[in-house]
Amino acid sequence: MHIGTLELGLTIHAAASLKDRRRTVTSLKQRVRNRFNAAVADLDDDPSPSYARIGIVCVANDPRRLDAQLRSIVEFVEALHLDLEVMHDHIDIIQL
Question: Could you give all domains of the chain from N- to C-terminal order, each with its CATH number?
Answer without folding.
Answer: 2-95 (3.30.70.1120)
